[in-house]
Amino acid sequence: MCVYTSVTVLITVVLGALLLSTGGFWKKIWLIFTSVLRPIIIGGIICYLFLPLVNQFEKVFNKKKEHKWSRAVGILCTFLIVLLVIALILLVICVTVYQNLTMINAEGIQSLLNSLQTNYQEIWDFIMEKLESVSGGPFNVTTVISVVTAGVKSFLSSLLFGTIFGVYFLMDGKHISTYWMRGFRLIFGEKLHICS
Predict the structure, then answer these.
(1) How many whole angstroms separate alpha carbon 19 and alpha carbon 195?
(2) At what angle do helices 23-61 and 70-103 cross, to 10 degrees?
(3) What is the rounded distance in angstroms from the CA atom of residue 133 to the CA atom of residue 35?
């Protein structure tokens, strides 16, 4: 019993030391894993949200007899409706912002900024101090712009690949679930499948 406990503790210490000494390597692996996993999660969310609408379109196209293309047309119609809704929302936002901007003149903006600077100087100094501590030096607008640009680029690429995964899940969702169930049966056996 003592030998077993000593060996377990020794293995745990060795594994902990290896993890600490190769921290950068595991951090890179984790970043790669999350960057690959993020579009799959987004695709699953898109599939979950759009599946009822796709099924309704498929039923409409399969009223008389079943067609092979009905699922693809249903997915296309669903994405067209979603894009149309997003375009309408963006149009309403742009029109509202434009109407509000036409009512504001340059003198009003300047007076507003001056009043904010005089009234909230302490808050402004605190924000600038925090930004300088995060950036490790004097606050630079270009660093903020580069960070924001990288974040937007990462989000858009994840959204693009997530949409591709979502379309794939919507097209072949039944086949994917069948393959997964076969894999679970092969790994865990029939008894676990029957119990579930």
Answers:
(1) 38
(2) 110
(3) 28
Per-residue tokens: 130: 């925090």
Structure token pair of residue 1: 């019993």
Burial 172-192 (b: 16+ CB within 10 A, else e): eeeeeeeeeeeeeeeeeeeee
Sequence-distant (≥ 6) Cβ neighbours of residue 61 within 8 angstroms: 67, 69, 70, 73, 74
Question: Rounded CA gap, 13 and 172, in Å?
Answer: 46
From first to last of its 196 residues, the chain has per-residue pLDDT tens of 667 777 788 888 777 777 666 666 667 777 777 778 888 899 999 999 999 999 899 888 888 677 778 888 989 999 999 999 999 999 999 888 887 766 666 666 667 667 766 666 677 677 777 666 665 555 555 666 777 788 888 888 888 999 999 999 888 877 777 777 777 677 766 655 444 4
pTM (2 decimals)?
0.60
Is residue 170 within 8 Å of residue 54, measured between CB atoms?
A: yes
DSSP 3-state assignment of 62?
A: coil
Backbone φ and ψ for 68, nearest 5 degrees, come out as: -70, -30
d(CA 185, CA 190): 5
Give the DSSP H or E segment for 11.
helix 2-21
